[in-house]
């Protein structure tokens, strides 16, 4: 089965050019969408991917109609490949059913992998910075659990737009203490993020280089798709005993950082 996917960003735009090209390339069913590429949910695209079977092909007029960035594009095409289907972009002359098309797409995959590696390196750098200041993982040594909770609350207020002076008044502490709480809470978050992200690995040559859980052949993207389908954390753990709660949290954190 050859599926087409056509998308424009606003309802005022029309799909005629894309539809003509998709029909000319043998598409038997076309999914149409008028929605921004930065939208987190694209219902028609999700319906298309859900219906894919072995040896199906997904055709788009050009790459920008499918993904909003290199990493987004790679993630979507990896989902298509995991269904046993192929991908074709008419204008960009990419077809993952051909040697040349596979090579070109591998370049995109390499760029997305570079972005992933840079994300991990930035997190590691944050941990090292905390270590250099005398914090070595876990709770900052000079904060009790109660004070750490206050520090996290101070950071939450600060990031939501509250002024330090108002936070100080609310917590009944000095402004200098507020800034200290904010910095310590940020360090703690960096440490916690690193500890979670370290559960994810990407091995060249395995699963197309996608992020997997602790080196197992379980893509982190699959966890995100299960959550998007409405499954709870508990349901995912019950259905997949190989997973742990922190594996789910790590996957959510990773894709949240990727989308920023």
UniProtKB/TrEMBL annotation:
Query: Which InterPro entries does the record cross-reference, listed alphabetically?
Result: DUF433 (IPR007367), Homeodomain-like_sf (IPR009057), Recombinase_CS (IPR006118), Resolv_N (IPR006119), Resolvase-like_N_sf (IPR036162), Resolvase_HTH_dom (IPR006120), SSR_resolvase (IPR050639), WH-like_DNA-bd_sf (IPR036388)
Tell me which residues this entry annotates as catalytic. Answer: 9
- Sorted alphabetically, which Pfam families does this protein's record hold? DUF433, HTH_7, Resolvase
* MF GO annotations: DNA binding; DNA strand exchange activity
What SMART domains has UniProt attached to this entry? Resolvase (SM00857)
Residues forming the Resolvase/invertase-type recombinase catalytic domain are 1-134
List this protein's GO terms for biological process.
DNA integration
Q: Which residues form a coiled coil?
A: 5-55
Record flagged with keyword DNA-binding: yes
Which UniProt keywords are given for this protein, alphabetically ordered?
Answer: Coiled coil, DNA integration, DNA invertase, DNA recombination, DNA-binding
Per the similarity annotation, which family is this?
A: Belongs to the site-specific recombinase resolvase family.
Q: State what protein this is by name.
A: Resolvase
Give the organism, scientific name: Pedobacter yonginense
């Amino acid at each position: 089965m050859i599926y087409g996917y056509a998308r424009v960003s606003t309802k005022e735009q029309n799909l005629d050019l894309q539809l003509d090209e998709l029909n000319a390339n043998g598409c038997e069913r076309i999914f149409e969408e008028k929605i921004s590429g930065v939208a987190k949910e694209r219902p028609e695209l999700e319906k298309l991917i859900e219906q894919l079977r072995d040896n199906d092909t997904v055709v788009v007029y050009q790459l920008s109609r499918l993904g909003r960035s290199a990493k987004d594009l790679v993630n979507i095409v990896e989902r298509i490949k995991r269904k046993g289907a192929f991908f074709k972009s008419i204008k960009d002359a990419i077809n993952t059913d051909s040697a040349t098309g596979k090579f070109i797409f591998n370049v995109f995959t390499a760029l997305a992998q570079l972005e992933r590696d840079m994300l991990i390196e930035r997190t590691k750098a944050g941990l090292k910075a905390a270590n250099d200041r005398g914090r070595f993982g876990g709770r900052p040594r000079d904060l009790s659990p109660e004070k750490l909770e206050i520090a996290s609350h101070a950071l939450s207020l600060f990031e939501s737009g509250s002024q330090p002076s108002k936070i100080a008044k609310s917590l009944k502490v000095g402004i200098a203490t507020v800034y200290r709480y904010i910095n310590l809470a940020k360090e703690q978050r960096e440490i916690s993020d690193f500890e979670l992200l370290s559960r994810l690995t990407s091995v060249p040559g395995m699963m197309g280089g996608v992020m997997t859980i602790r080196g197992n052949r379980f893509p982190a993207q699959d966890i995100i798709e299960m959550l998007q389908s409405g499954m709870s954390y508990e349901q995912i753990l019950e259905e997949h005993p190989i997973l742990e709660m922190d594996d789910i949290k790590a996957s959510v954190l990773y894709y949240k950082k990727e989308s920023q």
